[in-house]
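Task 17 of the worksheet. Students: predict the tertiary structure of the chain below and write it out as structure tokens. Keep your answer in the requested format; marks are given for formatting as well as content.
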Amino acid sequence: MKNASFITNIVLSVAVIVLFILHFTSNGSSVKNTDETTAGEVTATGGIVYIQIDSLVSKYDMFNDLKSEFESKAQTIQNDLNKRVRTFENDFKDFQLKVQKGLITRSQAEAQQQQLAMREQELQNFTQQKQMEMSEEEAVLYRRVFDALNTYLEKLNQEKRYAMILSTSGASNSILKGDSSLNITNMVVSAMNDEYIKTKSKK
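Model answer:
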């Protein structure tokens, strides 16, 4: 189990969010899409905007905090596994040496061999269990990030009423070229970070 593979999977998992659409809900009045926008300004009501998921995730404080916690726990587990493996390897070498030197009887050798085989299986089971636990935590991590994004976008769209909010990522980019004035990534991540800071301060 390698720590780097878990973090890579987080980003790849988040990249699954290829297209996020919020339909424009009319309040009875016609919506004009002729408002001019320039780089850095928010697109007019009823317009189409997009978010760069990779950029948002890398700048989102909650993701980085969760990532640090995940990395720390993964490293602790890795260190524990390494220690268990070294102990087993040393005991196995010690067993082989005793057998070679004839320091134990045949029945003792058979008994110790069975014990070592059981320990090896237990070590494999423990490793698989920790891998499953970390994979589950990894999945929860990116779901929490996406849930926070989804919650914020729902609130944002109640005010902005975009016709559509698209997402792009390095792994699966549905927008080959887009006007920078339609990119609301920085606005969204700034607002989400502000909300996250307020949430942290209450704890």
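Marker's comment: Confidence is low (pLDDT under 50) at residues 1-41. The two ends are 33 Å apart (CA to CA).
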